[in-house]
Amino acid sequence: MLRQTSRLCVSRLCTFPVKSAKYAGISTSRVIIDDEDRTEYIRRRKTEWKRKQGGQTFLDHLIVTVRAGKGGNGCAAFHREKFKPFGPPSGGSGGRGGDIYIIPTSSLTTLTSVPKRVHAQPGGNGQGTWQNGRNGDPTIIRVPLGTVVRELPRDDPRTSPDEWETEEESLEGLDYETKREKMRERRWVHYPRFSEANQERDSFKEAEAALYNEERERRFERRKKQMNNPIFLDLDTEEIMEDNTNLPLGQRRAESFGYLIASGGQGGLGNPHFLSEVNRSPKFASRGHEGERVTLSLELKILADVGLVGMPNAGKSTLLRAFTGGRTRTEVAGYEFTTLNPIVGVVRVGEDGSFEGGLSTGLVHDETLTEEQLEQERHRRGEYAHALTRNQHTSRTGHHFDLLETFRFTVADNPGLILGASDNVGLGHTFLRSMERALALVYVVDLAGPEPWTELRVLRDELDQYQPGMSAKARMVIANKADLLGGDGDPVLVEQAREKLRQLEEYVRTQMIIPGTRHRLDVVPTSAKFSQNLSKVVGLMKDYVTEAREAKRRMELTSRLF
Ligand SMILES: Nc1nc2c(ncn2[C@@H]2O[C@H](COP(=O)(O)OP(=O)(O)OP(=O)(O)O)[C@@H](O)[C@H]2O)c(=O)[nH]1
Ligand SMILES: [Mg+2]
Acidic residues composition bias: which ranges (predicted)? Predict the structure, then answer.
């Protein structure tokens, strides 16, 4: 299809730069390739790009900058009363800035509703007659269950500057005097017209030195914590609060805020705090501290009941499309690493074991590109010209499977796993993080391949490399592409195919024993492309999911009891 030519772009053909020619192994300065090659070329470029990401973009991911509330300012005031001209200092202290908490909730499923910047409420300023400012309300960030929260280190380019770095940046390039002036302005409140006189007094200088010392200590502690003990939270379980119905009337129910992420700044001190034997009428108060600033990386582990694990091209995406009647938009193509992200599909099962994908008889799950072309062809022929749109349908009964459905579970299609994935070969294996929460794993091997059992061993070892013991979650081996064996019913070839399957079963029985569990891996030959033998697979998956859900529920109950 690739043609070397000196002509310029013509109708369906388009010119491609030298890069694509290199990719195709042709040394020419101008090459013309048609639409099909172009699509193929773009897809492969996408795969290459993904591979270079080193598995970093597999998950729902978000960077959140969090800034706790600033403390309120202290107040410099004096008590005034009739016949009492020189009352004592009476400035109230500022309130604490609002803290920021993070809490997992089962009512969210994605990170889309989580804001990228979170600023908590500042504390109120202190006022005269000893009135302290009110504390800022806490801010709660709600994230879906399965979110992993990490604090980014300071040297990470995505980290926003913290409170001290921000101040340093704003003072850069100023001379010493102006710098000192600005720093004082940020830290002190003066009684009207006493700013200059205050700065001359020793008691103010002492208070200032003490404040800087305390600030230095706070910064040191904060940086030490950031280095040695950064925030890391794996928010897998929802905290269930006991609802105490015996509380006295008017008393608020205890409410969980979740995990503290950033503390609000302390409120500034009112002028009574600076009263000393030397200074009997302090005319200054301190301003509130800045709240903590933290940059967090949030990652969401996908929640799927069953995860498909297999080598590239084994047919995982075709299987998922077959289970869901082609509803799941996962790409299928005859080259390796077609799937770049884990994709979740919902499998709907009826009471009699039928499943949505199995109802459409004779449906062949073909390559997505071929299907797209067929669709376009139908469009061109005008086959859809008189088709009703969704809004024009008069009877809306929902999906025809709605009445039959009694059980549903989710299946995740993953990118291919290959030998050395743990060393970041292929697409690496970081996408397996999203499978940590799967209730069961299913191996998919190509039965038509030379040695499906070797594939199995590699898959199991890569799983265990990722997380020791992870292979214990595997429950089934799908021997896919069984339609490619057996020729056209030639008895010799059929016998050979049977023998190969027997060999695979024998390998699974003897070599794939999972220590510590009583499970045996089931081996099921299938043809995803021609939707054959899939009801058995769906039935078994349903059993695993029911069993695992039941076990999980029992565990939750026991943990709540003790
Ligand atoms: N004959 C036959 N071909 C199949 C079957 N299942 C999948 N294929 C073909 O195998 C190729 C790869 O299928 P995919 O579903 O993309 O494989 P995958 O495991 O998702 O591959 P990656 O996404 O690269 O990991 C495609 O050309 C499919 O049409 C099957 O049961 N029989
Ligand atoms: Mg795939």
Answer: 162-171
